[in-house]
Design goal:
This protein is mainly β. The chain has no helices and 4 strands.
């Protein structure tokens, strides 16, 4: 079997998924992430970040998915995935506040 999963596009950003193929994550609504690519549009996964507001004007090109991945049910996150399945942008919020340094 031949696969191109090793391919990586040099896109800007510091998240390790940027430029790589998105894994087929099962989502809390019973679907999978890859299942949302059937219409050939980009997918914006927005779980409690508000990123979907930026995609409102692009509804003819971007499918917005709000169901969290079952592996990360309480993790706020957003990812814009190109129609070929490669992550173009990603933002993962911390689920708990970062402790401040002692003063």
């Amino acid at each position: 079997m031949i696969s191109g999963d090793w391919q990586h596009y040099p896109l800007p950003g510091d998240h390790p998924l940027i430029g790589r193929r998105v894994p087929d994550l099962p989502l809390a609504d019973g679907t999978t992430l890859v299942g949302h690519f059937r219409d050939g549009r980009a997918v914006l996964l927005d779980v409690a970040t508000g990123a979907a507001a930026a995609a409102e004007g692009w509804s003819d090109r971007v499918t917005v998915v709000a169901a969290p991945p079952t592996a990360f049910p309480d993790q706020p996150m957003a990812a814009l995935v190109r129609s070929d399945g490669h992550v173009a942008w990603s933002r993962w919020a911390r689920s708990t506040p970062t402790p401040s340094a002692p003063s």
